[in-house]
Automatic annotation (TrEMBL):
Domain of life where this protein originates: Bacteria
Pfam family name, one: MerR_1
SMART domains assigned: HTH_MERR
Organism: Mesorhizobium liriopis
Name used for this protein in its record: MerR family transcriptional regulator
Swiss-Prot/TrEMBL keywords: DNA-binding
HTH merR-type domain boundaries: 10-78
CDD domains: HTH_MlrA-like_sg2 (cd04765)
Lineage, top ranks: Bacteria, Pseudomonadati, Pseudomonadota, Alphaproteobacteria, Hyphomicrobiales
Length: 182
């Protein structure tokens, strides 16, 4: 007697339908948190129809398309369960819709253009404006004529300015890389 398409399936039925060993299904449950069969007394598993569809998609990506487990996990995290189900069923319009949505999201998160580099009166490069004015004590200015970076001038020496500018460029590059990862 055949079950209705909406009926729950046992692990042996799912394993037979997908031509997979039962231990592989149990292993995939540990690697893909999206697979959540209902467990009854004695640990007997019952898979919902949406679980079976997701497993079909995972199987297709791992066995037919050559993805690794980490690759499929990334696809699930980035695109969601429905994308992997669509891949498994060969639903090309759904796959293309997810790809378009993802491209739009990436475009919205595009890296902003690099800041405009200006020069001060000494010809030193400046990038942006400081959000807070540095205290004179932080830079050692005003403690005494001999202790300041440029004694009595109230300004940073060229070497200290260059070091701070280099640190600023490094921080901007780090921010750019972090924005790309997000």
């Amino acid at each position: 007697m055949d079950k209705s398409p909406d009926a729950f399936r046992t692990i042996s039925e799912v394993a037979e339908d997908l031509d997979l060993p039962q231990h592989v299904l149990r292993f995939w449950e540990t690697r893909f948190t999206q697979i959540k069969p209902m467990k009854r007394g004695g640990g007997r598993r019952y898979y919902r129809p949406q679980d079976v569809e997701l497993i079909k998609g995972i199987r297709h990506m791992l066995y037919d398309q050559g993805y690794t487990i980490k690759g499929v996990q990334r696809m699930l995290r980035d695109n969601g369960n429905q994308f992997v189900v669509s891949v498994g069923t060969g639903d090309v319009p759904a796959i293309e819709a997810v790809a378009r949505r993802r491209a739009a999201e990436e475009e919205a998160m595009a890296v902003p253009p690099a800041p405009v580099i200006e020069r001060d009166e000494d010809g030193e490069m400046l990038v942006g404006e400081a959000k807070a004015k540095p205290s004179r004590r932080f830079f050692g200015i005003g403690k005494g004529e001999e202790e300041g970076p440029v004694a009595g001038s109230g300004k940073l020496s060229r070497d200290n300015r260059a070091l701070l500018q280099e640190a600023l460029f490094d921080l901007l590059e780090c921010k750019r890389l972090l924005d790309q990862v997000r």
